[in-house]
Amino acid sequence: MPFCSSLRRPISTFALFLLVILTWGINVLHLGVITSEGVSIPEKLPQDLGGARWIPKEKAGINQLILFGDPFTRGYASGKLTSHLIFQQEAALIREFYHLFPNPLLRNALILGLLRWYWGIQEYFENWMLAESYGVSLSASHEFNFLLDPFSRQIAYHGLHEVGQIDDRSGSCVHGLHGFRGSP
Q1: Angle between helix 150-165 and helix 71-100 axes, rounded to 10 deg
Q2: pTM for the whole thing?
Q3: Taking the chain (184 residues) in consecutive chunks of 10 residues, what is each chunk's mean pLDDT?
Q4: Structural domain boundaries of the chain?
Q5: What is the torsional sign of CA 33, 107, 109, 163?
Q6: How far apart are CA 136 and CA 73, in angstroms?
Q7: Sequential DSSP letters for 57-102
């Protein structure tokens, strides 16, 4: 019996440690989601795109997106007109992420760390930026909701884009991410 009682304290300590880590993880998952609270979003979605249009690079030599209206309407029109590109870019990003981190445990730990890193990032965005991103997120694919909701993903991808521009000597927007296999 002394052997069994001598294991009780280390097992209890380990169980308590696991419980604390689990609680922290759930807290991060909850607080890592960006809400649209305080963002001016219309009650009803726009019926038309307000004259916005997409001109593919085959016609003009470079993709062109022409937008009009308030930030939410611009984002909504942008999302509707470029949803195919948003999906392709997100799929390429996720594919590369899985290639770089094939171990699911490491991948999930990194996602949890990124959620903690981006926790509260919306405070650094102007309201019009959040409204525009929210409009875009309405056209984002739900295929990637296992990571985050579409709005939080759009904000995180925007942050990733900005980080890529910090030391951009390569000429591409996100120099660390150009060259994705299958990126558009």
Answers
A1: 80
A2: 0.71
A3: 69 83 74 70 79 89 91 93 93 92 91 81 86 92 89 84 69 45 44
A4: 32-165
A5: negative
A6: 9
A7: HHHHSS-EEE--SSHHHHHHHHHHHHHHHHHHHHHHHHHHHHHH--
